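Much of our argument rests on the idea that a fold can be written as discrete symbols. Part of our work consisted of pairing the sequence of a single chain with a tokenised description of its backbone. The amino acid sequence and the backbone structure tokens for this protein are reproduced below.
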Amino acid sequence: MTPTLDIIRTDIEDLHVFLAGWLSGRLPKSRDAYVAAVDARLDKGFFNIQPAGRVWRRADLIPELWEAHGISPTFDIRISDVELHHVLENGLGLATYLEHQSGAQNSEAQNTRRSSLLFRVADPTIQWLSLHESRIDG
């Protein structure tokens, strides 16, 4: 499979819709839904660099996010400006997007982040390898 911009955009949006619903508590706390949306999507070596520089490794992120269900009742995320920059013959790719957060409890309530996603093609979708987020406002 060669991922298209639409496939990448859909994957990014689907994860963030889930995260907004999860963290706000609008979604029920379901282990199966959590595994399908988060656990299965992130590569075993996944890491996330937060805007303040904190590095979240998958082993810490997965249980921490599980426990954060409903922590931020007004939380929402909107994704825009998704761009697919590279897809190499070995299936590695790079995409960027803007993540607009509102109602956040553990960061600035209103913030926008430019995110760079390193992924690997995992037919029929993608596997997230690394995510680096940088604040672009406030």
